[in-house]
Structures are given as structure tokens and as C-alpha cells.
Design a protein that fits this description.
single chain, about 300 residues, alpha/beta, Glucose Oxidase, domain 1, nine-stranded mixed sheet, two-stranded antiparallel sheet, 9 helices, 17 strands
């Protein structure tokens, strides 16, 4: 089934293939230049820190809708084990974990999404095997640190949570930026709050999973990200984008355009609730953000504990 013309028109506007050279595997993270990060360091004034991660636990957000994406199962492999029988000698306790790399707060890598048998840069999906992604693996992202900006769309609209299925528009992002008195700059890491995370903390995981309807960025946000030279974007939702999609015949169209065409690293399951409170109290919606992924070789994504520093 051919993709809708609206999708193809937007594709031609935002596609970054070759923009940073044929060998590029970072996409929009190229906007995180040394100058951009040095400028971002100026956001640190008080040293107050806010973690944006949800706990990694067996009772996490995954309900099995995505095959193989399981909540973290952590188990002990050694409990106060000694190297010799002497109780006064060295002892240790160790544990292991099995989980989906996109199960909790995470980044999607550029190998995570494909369409037309292509991933970012026009690379063939044949570059992904049972051993992982030989190109565009998350290990290529050695650092993801810079200026973070919270666009609190829910607060800007005067609600605790956007309606399920609300397509966040470019105008919504501009409205949230105006409310926060912040200008989005090239190289910024944009965090979009819909308020949906509160449903997860309230135990309404079926609502949070969003398959019957989820707020999130709509089609107009794709061009907005491109126009502002955003380095990365994350939301407080399970799906990232609005669901169902605004386009018939292009399920998860925002994923396809963002990740495959633009090369935009995007994040999901980010806890923006405390951040919203802190930003409102400080009347500051920009901050220094450390959100580097774990360098799993060949991985299509990575858990992350993002920390906003004021």
C-alpha cells in the first residue's frame, strides 16, 4: 500500500540523508556541537538535580503488547558469597538483569525504526541481524548531553493531562515555549509533557500503554523539530507520538519520519512530573541535561537515567 501523499511531502522536507556525510550514524545528534554543549553548561546555576527516569522493576509499564519487550527481571547470582570459607574474608553479592532495552525510560536508536526496507541514511535493513545492528547501533552515541527544554503542553493548556488521542501540534509546542519564556535553539533536547505519566503512577497501565488512544506529537511536530534543528526529543508517553496516527495508511508515521528520514533520536517513558513542578516553581524551563545511553553494541535502543540540572 503506497504511503499517503502528505507523508511523502513531509518526507522530502525533513530527510537528512547525507546532510552530515554518507557515513553519518548520529543524525540530528550532530547538532550537539562542542559550542552547543559549552553554552548549555551555563544553565547550571543552583545545582538542583531532577531524575527523569521511572524505576526499573518487574512491575513496570510493559503489558506484553510489544512482543519480547519485557519488564526488567533482576535476580541474584551471589548472596554474601566468599572466595574461601573464612567468614572474615572478602564476600560479595552480585545480580543480573534481563529486560527489553526499550522497556523503561529509554532512547530509540536510529536502527530501531525502518520502512521500505531502509533505516536512517538509506541503509538496508539487511544490516540488522540476530546479532543486532551493524550500523546505527546505539553504541555510536557516546554522549548525549546538552541543553534540555521542557515544553509543558499540558500545563500550557491548563490541564493535568491532555485528552487521549490529542495530536500535539507545532502551535502547541510554540504555545508551551511561550508559556515557559524559553526559545528553542539548535542543538536543544526537547522534552514534551502531556501529563500521561500520571496514569502510570496511578496504576492505570492500560491507559498509559495508549493502544486505545494516546496523546503525543502529531505530524506538524515533525517539521517543527526539523526547522528548529532539535538534537533529540522525548515524551512522557509509552508510544511517543499521537495514537491513532493522524494519517490513514501510515501507522506510527511520526516514528518513521523522525527516526528514518530525519535521524532524530527520540525517547519514551520519561517521567516529567517532578520536572514540571520544579520548572514552574523556578520559572525556568531550560536546564542542563545529561542523558547518555548505555553503549550496548548493535543495540536498537538503550535504557537511560536522564538528569536535569538547574
Amino acid at each position: 500500500m503506497p504511503l499517503p501523499q502528505e507523508f511523502l511531502d513531509l518526507q522530502s522536507k525533513v530527510r537528512n540523508w547525507g546532510r552530515w556525510g554518507d557515513d553519518d550514524v548520529l543524525g540530528t545528534l550532530n547538532h550537539l556541537t562542542d559550542d552547543a554543549v559549552a553554552a548549555a553548561a551555563g544553565e547550571i546555576r543552583t545545582g538542583q538535580r531532577v531524575s527523569l527516569a521511572i524505576d526499573l522493576k518487574l512491575d513496570g509499564p510493559q503489558l506484553g503488547a510489544v512482543p519480547g519487550r519485557v519488564n526488567p527481571l533482576r535476580t541474584m547470582v551471589a548472596i554474601n558469597a566468599g572466595l574461601d570459607p573464612d567468614p572474615d574474608s572478602f564476600h560479595t553479592s552480585d545480580d543480573v538483569v534481563f529486560m527489553g532495552l526499550q522497556a523503561g525510560t529509554h532512547w530509540d536508536g536510529l536502527a530501531h525504526v525502518s520502512y521500505g526496507d531502509k533505516i536512517y541514511g538509506g541503509r538496508s535493513t539487511d544490516t540488522i541481524t540476530e546479532w543486532g545492528a551493524s550500523q546505527c547501533g546505539i553504541e555510536a552515541v557516546r554522549s548525549l548531553t546538552g541543553r534540555g527544554v521542557l515544553l509543558d503542553v499540558a500545563k500550557a493548556k491548563g490541564v493535568d493531562m491532555l485528552d487521549l488521542g490529542h495530536a500535539v501540534s507545532a502551535d502547541d509546542l510554540d504555545e508551551a515555549a511561550a508559556m515557559g519564556g524559553v526559545e528553542v535553539r539548535a542543538g536543544d533536547i526537547v522534552l514534551i509533557r502531556t501529563g500521561l505519566m500520571a496514569s502510570y503512577f496511578d496504576g492505570q497501565k492500560e491507559v498509559y500503554n495508549g493502544w486505545t488512544g494516546s496523546p503525543g506529537p502529531g505530524m506538524s511536530c515533525v517539521e517543527w523539530f526539523h526547522r528548529h534543528d532539535v538534537a533529540a526529543a522525548a515524551t512522557d508517553t509509552f508510544i511517543f507520538e499521537v495514537y491513532p496516527s493522524e494519517l490513514d495508511g501510515a501507522m506510527l508515521a511520526v516514528h518513521m519520519l523522525n527516526v528514518v528520514d530525519m535521524g532524530l533520536t527520540q525517547g519514551q517513558n520519561w517521567n516529567l512530573e517532578e520536572l514540571s513542578t520544579v520548572c514552574a516553581a523556578a520559572q525556568r524551563y531550560s536546564f542542563f541535561l545529561e542523558a547518555s545511553p548505555l553503549p550496548f553494541v548493535g543495540a536498537c535502543g538503550s535504557p537511560v537515567n536522564p538528569v536535569a540540572i538547574f
